[in-house]
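User: Predict structure, ligand magnesium ion.
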Amino acid sequence: MSLVSLKDVHLSYISHSEGRAVEQEVLKGVSFEIGKGEIVGLAGESGSGKSTIARAILGTHRISSGELVRNTDMPQMIFQDPYGALNPAHTISWIMQEPLKMTTKLKGPERKERCARMLEDVGLDAGYLSRKPGELSGGQRQRICIGTALMREPELLIADEPVSALDVTVAAQVLALLKKLHDERKLAILFISHDLRIMYHFCQRIMILKDGVIVEQGTPDKLYRDPQHEYTKLLLTSAGIRS
Ligand SMILES: Nc1ncnc2c1ncn2[C@@H]1O[C@H](COP(=O)(O)OP(=O)(O)OP(=O)(O)O)[C@@H](O)[C@H]1O
Ligand SMILES: [Mg+2]
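Assistant: Predicted complex:
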């Protein structure tokens, strides 16, 4: 059974301009599934609706029609800007314990113990528990975001441009961490990115989104060697993968 399944999903935003409500349809019939432990890429230019698909899956924005089924606990999300995602006023310990406070009856020392273990899993030592986000590098912050997202042991992680704000070396380390967590925990990842080069190595399947429609999807090998849609060809050319 798939973790999430979307069938012909439409989603519109309503904005208000000069006292009138204006409806903009952003997802125009999106269908796909994500299986257990699968890494699925979602690519497409800015404004194509990638983050909107994430919001639809998380239920933070209601779909206007179609069917969206989640067969798993709430997926967790990480974002491009690991700084904005972390409350600067609190320690890493406080931040990482939060998800446990809401969903478990664990006492303080047990929660702390779990945080320390999770820190190790994301490649940081327990000394970071007492630090605040402002004292960490971008890569370390993203590790904290990943660890915090995994505290509730979700089966699906939605990563929205998780390494776009990081420099190349740090980005590669964070990707390696995501891959390790995928391997160890059978974690499924919806990997949203502009970067088709990164996606080739990271994703098992890639979906190409254009103006709210998935125009093509397939394994990286098939998609990159034999793209069918003009838009896929264009993306590959602008990424320097096709000439
Ligand atoms: N809360 C909102 N209210 C109204 N319109 C919105 C809202 N959020 C997004 N949009 C519009 O929906 C469209 C899709 O936005 P979305 O954020 O999903 O794009 P994206 O593919 O994630 O782009 P990017 O690569 O820049 O992150 C855009 O035209 C955007 O302006
Ligand atoms: Mg986005």
